[in-house]
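Homework help board

Subject: predicted structure for assignment chain

Our instructor gave us this sequence and asked us to write out the predicted structure in token form, then describe one feature. I got the tokens but I'm not sure how to describe them. Can anyone check?
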Amino acid sequence: MAGSATQTEMYRPPKLQVFKQTGQYFTLNNSDLHLCRLLEKRGEIETVRVEMIPRHRVPKGVSALLLPRDGGQSEGDTSTEGRWG
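My token output:
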């Protein structure tokens, strides 16, 4: 039917707040990241809106808890593993 939108077209996933630390990207809203992964797996979305957050706006307590996946060995490595890292 022309002009009508499906439920998938009408739903817009949340914008992820992302920042970069030690050469890797982290999200401030992990539950939204999981939702986007689920929607992608179902084939309901292909892209995700992202807002890059400057490191000075990331709470120090949050930043201190984050460790790179390899224990800090990839300071200069910005490669990702797959689409979601």
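Reply (TA_rk): Your tokens look well-formed. For the description, you could write something like this. Residues 30-41 form the longest helix (12 residues). That's the kind of observation they're looking for.
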